[in-house]
Specification:
Number of helices: 5
Shape: elongated
Helix content: over 70%
Largest sheet: none
Order of helices and strands: HHHHH
Number of strands: 0
Structural class: mainly alpha
Radius of gyration: 24 Å
Distance between the termini: 21 Å
C-alpha cells in the first residue's frame, strides 16, 4: 500500500508542477497584457494632448497594447491549473478543515471520519470528472470555438478533464487507503497535513 501511495503522490506532484508552470506562464502573460494596455493608454493620452505625437504614434505602430485573446487563454489555463493542483491537495490532505471536536475524539473515530470524508471527496471528484467529460463531448460535437483566438473550446475541457480524472483516481485511492487504515489501524497518510506540507 505504501508503494502505491508513493506512486500516486509522485504523479500528483508531476501534474501539480505542470500546473505551476502553466500558472506562471499565465501570470507573466497577464502582467505583459496589463503593461501593454497601460502603455497603449498612456501613448493615446499623449497623442490626445498633442505631446510627442510622432514618437507616441511610432511606438503605437509597433503594436504595443493588449494581448489579443488573453482573457480566453487565462480562462482556459486557470481551469486546467485548478484541476492540476487538486490531486496533490487530495493526496496530501491539503484541503482546509476545521477540527473543533475531532481532536477530542478517540483515534478510531477520527479514522472513521477520515474514511467517510475521503469517500465523499472521491464520489464528488468522480462526478466532477464524469460531468466534465459530458461537457467536453458536447463542445467537441458542437465545434464551438473561442471568440477571438478561435481555438476549439473542447481543448480547454480536455486539459481540465485530464486533471479531473487524475483527481478522481487520487480521491478513490485516498478513500481505499483510509478504509485500509480503518481496518488495520496502520497509518499510511497522516490524518492532517499540518503546516509543513
Amino acid at each position: 500500500m505504501n508503494g502505491l501511495h508513493r506512486i500516486v503522490l509522485g504523479g500528483a506532484r508531476v501534474v501539480a508542477l505542470i500546473g505551476g508552470v502553466v500558472l506562471l506562464a499565465l501570470i507573466v502573460m497577464t502582467c505583459i497584457d496589463i503593461l501593454g494596455r497601460t502603455i497603449n493608454s498612456g501613448l493615446h493620452f499623449l497623442i490626445s494632448m498633442g505631446i510627442a505625437t510622432a514618437a507616441a504614434q511610432t511606438v503605437l505602430d509597433t503594436g504595443v497594447g493588449a494581448i489579443a485573446g488573453s482573457y480566453e487563454v487565462l480562462e482556459a489555463g486557470m481551469a486546467f491549473c485548478i484541476f492540476a493542483f487538486l490531486p496533490l491537495c487530495q493526496v496530501t490532505m491539503g484541503h482546509a478543515s476545521v477540527d473543533l471536536f475531532a481532536n477530542m475524539m478517540p483515534r478510531t473515530i477520527n479514522r472513521l471520519l477520515a474514511f467517510l470524508t475521503a469517500l465523499l471527496f472521491a464520489a464528488v471528484l468522480v462526478v466532477i470528472a464524469m460531468q466534465l467529460n459530458v461537457g467536453m463531448q458536447r463542445k467537441l460535437n458542437s465545434n464551438q470555438t473561442s471568440l477571438l483566438l478561435e481555438f476549439p473550446i473542447w481543448w480547454a475541457y480536455a486539459a481540465s478533464l485530464a486533471g479531473a480524472c487524475l483527481a478522481a483516481l487520487t480521491g478513490v485511492h485516498v478513500a481505499v487507503v483510509r478504509f485500509y487504515e480503518l481496518l488495520t489501524g496502520r497509518e499510511i497518510v497522516p490524518l492532517v497535513a499540518g503546516a509543513d506540507h
